[in-house]
Amino acid sequence: MDKPILVVDDEPEILVAVDTTLRMAGFDNIITINDARDVIRHMEREIPGLILLDLNMPHINGGRLLKIIRKTWPRIPVIVLTGTIEVDTAVQCMKIGALDYVVKPVEEDRLVAAVKQALAMDETGETGKKPLHQNLFAQIKNPAAFRHIITQDKKMHAIFHYVEAIAPSLQPVLICGETGVGKELIGQCIHTLSSRKGRLVVVNVAGLDDNVFSDTLFGHVPGAFTGADKARSGLIEAAAGGTLFLDEIGDLAMTSQVKLLRLLQEGDYLALGSDKTRHSDARIIASTNQDLWALEKQNKFRKDLIYRLSTHTLTLPPLRERLLDLPLLLDRFVCQAAVELEKPIPDIPKTLIEQMETYPFKGNIRELKSMVHDALSRYKKGPITADLFKGLDLTKKEDTPESTAPALETGNSLPTLKQASNILVEKAMEQADGNQSAAAKILGISQQALSKRLQKIRK
Q1: What's the CA gap between 406 and 403, in Å, rounded?
Q2: Would you tell me the crossing angle of helices 254-266 and 210-218 to the nearest 10 degrees?
Q3: Are 190 and 167 in contact, with CB atoms under 8 Å apart?
């Protein structure tokens, strides 16, 4: 099998016994973990095909860990390992979502039979219907490359296809999108799929003057400037045979843009203080949250550099245009924060998701993750509520007289019903930051109905 079997138990002798039994039965891709706190971190890097999970462990007990796994990775089969006196608990775990249980000390035939059954069910899909986002991933040739990106959005799915198509190319890639949408993650996906043997080297060029940029990227020779006693290789050399990711490229100084242009055109560069041309084979990926063409009109960015950077271009949608992903992201971040803060995993009420759908999220996914972590730091018990999220309660301004009354004022007389309707529609669109789906929820109407009203208003 391609995916590993993950065995989690705090007793070394149990790990050895299970590992030995499974290897003798022909399973060779086995990973053992003796600290429950490492499980989620490992699964963020590599998704297993099956988990064997001990119930009684320090730090995070197996029951709690099972809930995290079921919420975040619902299709991974889990077999619980339990002592004889814990069989009732094991049965309760099966109600939560465990596929089977094996009593310790482990009986070899029982263990092998349970593992074979679990893997067979996983391969035939009998464990349940695939969620939408997994169906989308089924069309991707290399889904493992995108495992760190949580999405069921069709726009993101189309981007994944594009990334797979351009990954083998040596040409530059320009990734556009607002702050916090995951531009660096996409850059990592491109590098992974390129199969380049070198490293992915990331450098944020924002705020670097020309000398610092040149030294950081190209390095220097001894005597290049005061204090330069030894030669220093730059990041472009560190990225040899790999990928150089230039973040916030829109903030690059004009003088530095000339040097970058030469690197892109010829692959050549000069270390500071040197007159000897060096050559780089690193693939260049750049990202920006700015409109480079608007900067070009302001004489802040070179037109020829834009053309060179944007051989392949993709734009990531903001979170407010990926509302289907909001529950998935919220659930993942809640689980992560609960584990990190050693708190119980709270239920997420539907009302919280609905309220978040009207929040602008100008910092996008990064802002959501920070908000969740901050909210969990104050969480104590029960469902997680909106009052724990700083700023989220501001999205309910429509409930207060101060916010609704001024919106309907059109002079000394009351507006007509048509005028009042138009005012409410415009206010809802403003509050939802232009997102029609979110604005429709505020108004209590369908998105189609809102779209028709907007067409009439804007004729």
Answers
A1: 6
A2: 30
A3: yes
Of 213, 191, 215, 211, the C-alpha closest to 201 is 191
Omega before 4 cis (within 30°)?
no
Q: Is the pLDDT of residue 105 over 80?
A: yes
pLDDT at 225 over 90: no
Per-state percent for the chain, helix, strand, coil, to nearest 5? 50, 10, 35
Query: Of 86, 84, 105, which Cα lies nearest the Cα of 94?
Result: 86
Summary mean pLDDT of the chain = 85
Helix (H) or strand (E) holding 288: strand 283-288
For the stretch 400-440, pLDDT in tens is: 444 444 445 545 567 777 778 888 888 888 887 677 777 77
Nearest Cα residue to 153 out of 174, 138, 132: 132
Domain range 143-315, CATH architecture: 3-Layer(aba) Sandwich (3.40)
Q: Which CATH architecture has domain 325-398?
A: Orthogonal Bundle (1.10)
Nearest residue to 245 via CA among 180, 185, 166, 312: 185
User: What is the structure's pLDDT at 223?
Assistant: 79
Q: pLDDT at residue 125 above 60?
A: no
pLDDT band, very low/low/confident/very high, at 343 (cuts 50, 70, 90): confident
Q: How far apart are the first and last CA of the chain?
A: 60
List Cβ neighbours of 204 (8 Å cut-off, separation of 6 or more): 247, 248
User: Same fold for the domain at 5-124 and the one at 325-398?
Assistant: no
The label of the residue with tokens 């002592």 reads 83
